[in-house]
Every structure is written in structure tokens, then in C-alpha cells.
Amino acid sequence: MNLHEYQAKELLHQFGVAVPAGIKATSQQEAIEAAKEIRHDGPWVVKAQVHAGGRGKAGGVKFVRTIQDVEAQAGRLLGSTLHTHQTGPEGVKVHALLIQDGVDIAKEYYLSCLVDRSKKRIILIGSSEGGMDIEEVAAKTPEKILTLVVDPIAGVQPYQARDMGFKMGMGKKEVDQFAKVLNGVYNLFVQKDCSMVEINPLIVTTDGQLMALDAKVSLDDNALYRHKDTAELRDPTQEDEREHIAHEIGLNYVALDGNIGCMVNGAGLAMATMDVCQLHGGEPANFLDVGGGATADRVARAFKLILSSSKVKAILVNIFGGIVRCDTIAEGIINAVKEVGLTLPVVVRLQGTNVEAGREMLAKSGMNIQAADDLTTAAKLAVAAAAK
Ligand code: GDP
Ligand code: MN
Questions:
Q1: Is 253 a known active-site residue?
Q2: Tens-digit pLDDT profile for residues 91-131
Q3: Does 248 lie in the same domain as 215?
Q4: Which residue, 145, 289, 303, 358, could crosslink 326 as a Cys pair with Cβ 3.0–4.6 Å?
């Protein structure tokens, strides 16, 4: 789950990392009041709050000097759709702004924290090349990317912070502040179960203060149950609508760009199903794992979720009935179709517990279903059906 910049900054502030004064605003009036509260006179920065980076280049971050410009930029951004290189062609809606103190930048750095799975450690990544696309820095000048591996028992050691800071080109005064920032970021990461904290840029102001000018925090969904405070920060307007509904029902659903709707039980089988579709020239419209303990009701909801996407041109159901029984799946599909109707071709591959009963129910339902015994045949049929 991703957080907005203003939420991420509140967390960083709680963990002792300095951030510029800023206030969230959801209307032009609020933006004006926020600006006046932050400082008498400009400059301010008006920042679109969306779950995507690259806002600066897309016109979502505006440096302004007058209240009139705060009002104008707020008016332009609120309710608009922002297209950045991270959003895809559909863009993201701007419902909120961060009005922030406009600070004077002396230098921009990059800092992030994430899990390095191969090292089985949390790492901190720093670079002197802040404010830029970090992927580009890594590709063109990999020597400018520094990594600090944190020992889970010892935490971030002062010598590690000094070493990284000096290598990033900081002076003594900055390095002392940098050690505090590293500890703050690391503690936030661990205590709030983050999957990523990124500060790009981490700046030094002209009066020598180290600050997080931008902030991105992603939380580990699997740990949200133990963080009521951060779980509440979810913003459904920034998420795929179907992913949000799926989350509410408790389904593992990820929206994709293709046109074959997939309904599968088990994450591994779902991945394999998508792979086999691709292998035969098809593009899945989604990843969907209905889970081991799926009831007919859950299957029906999952099926309706797939049908609700206009992109879907064919549906592939691939169920290996172990704990979930094939007749339950059939019942769910039939219930869903009774409710919302079905004009799309459906390919079903059922195997396992109560498979005969399941197949019979589907055959008698009068629906236009193509049955397949194995995954390859099923995938080929679905790809062909979607291409028609
Ligand atoms: P992003 O484009 O989505 O990563 O948004 P950022 O928050 O990183 O802002 C983009 C760029 O705007 C930054 O890299 C800065 O160069 C600039 N910027 C943002 N806030 C300020 C500010 O307070 N003062 C100045 N001088 N520049 C700013
Ligand atoms: Mn940024």
C-alpha cells in the first residue's frame, strides 16, 4: 500500500527527519489558508498528491511566489488528471495538494531504504545524484549508487553513516545530520513495516539544513493488520477500482493490461496460468487468486469483478480443486452469470475434488462454456476466443 507524500512526511517527521513546513489542502480556499499559515509571503510550492512519481516534469509541482498563484495552481491541479511517466496513459486524479514552504536548495541527494532479498537484510541506498531518475543514475553511473547494509541487531552504525555521507560528498556538518536521517528512515522502515521509504531529493538548504523535500513510503500489506494508524491512510481514489473492491472482499487481485480475464485458485497456479496464456500469445487482464477456502459467494463476486472490466474479451477459469471443491466453483460462476449475464466466451479447466459434479453443473447451465482437461489446451482456447 502506497502513501501520499504528505502522509509520508508526517511519518518521517515523527521519526526525527526534518521536512519543510507543509499543510494538506483539498480546495482552493484551503490552499490559500494553508499558504498564509506557513509563511507571510512566498515562495511556496504547490504539490499534487498522487500515488506516482515524476510529478515535477508533468506539471504537478509548482514553485509560486504570490497567493494569487497558489490559488491559480490549486485551481488548475485539483480535480485534474495528472499524467507522469509512472502513471500510464490513463493518469491519476488529483484530489489533494500539499502546500509547502518554498525552500532554497544548495544540493540534492538521493536516499532510500528497502529490503535486499538476496542479502536478507534491510539496506539504505544513497547517491549524490538527487532529484533525478534514480534508475537512470544506476544505469549510466552505477558507481554513484552507494549501499549500506544494516545489521538487524546492531542497527545503523555511526561509522556506516559517516562513510556513506562523506562518499556522497557531504561536509562534516551535513554528515552529523545525515546520521540522524539514516536512523530515522531505518527506524520508520522497521517500526511501521514498510516495503520502501524513498527521499528524492534529500536536500541541504542554503542555510545548511538537511531535509526531506520529497517522500515516498510504501507499506507491506501483509503487516497492515498490526498497524491501525497507517492502515487508515489508504486512499482508494488512487488505487485501481477493481483492486480496491477485491481488497474489500479479501481476494488477491492485480489489474493488468491484457484482455483475458483469469480466475484461478492459488497464487502459484495463477502465475502459471498467466505464463501459459502469454506463451500462447495472449495477454492476461488480471491476476486473481480466489484462495483455497473460496465459497460459492466469493467465487461469484470474483467472477463479477472480472466481468466488470470492459477490457476483458474472454475468461479463463483454471481451478485445481483441493480444499476448494469444483462444484463450489461451478455454483459461484453460475450464480454470478445469473445476476449479471454473460456475453463473453468462457473456457474452464476444472480438475480435482468433485470435478464431475462441477462439470455437470456447468454443462447443464446452458452457458457458452468450452471445457478443457489441461492447462495448455485451456490457454490456447482462451487466447483464440479473446482474439476473435
Ligand atoms: P517528483 O517530481 O514527483 O519527484 O516531485 P518532487 O517533490 O521531487 O519535486 C520535483 C522537483 O521540484 C524537486 O526535485 C525540486 O528540484 C523541485 N522542488 C520541489 N520543492 C521545491 C522547493 O521547495 N524549492 C525549490 N527550489 N525546488 C523545489
Ligand atoms: Mn521526487
A1: no
A2: 999 999 999 999 999 999 999 999 999 999 999 999 999 98
A3: no
A4: 358
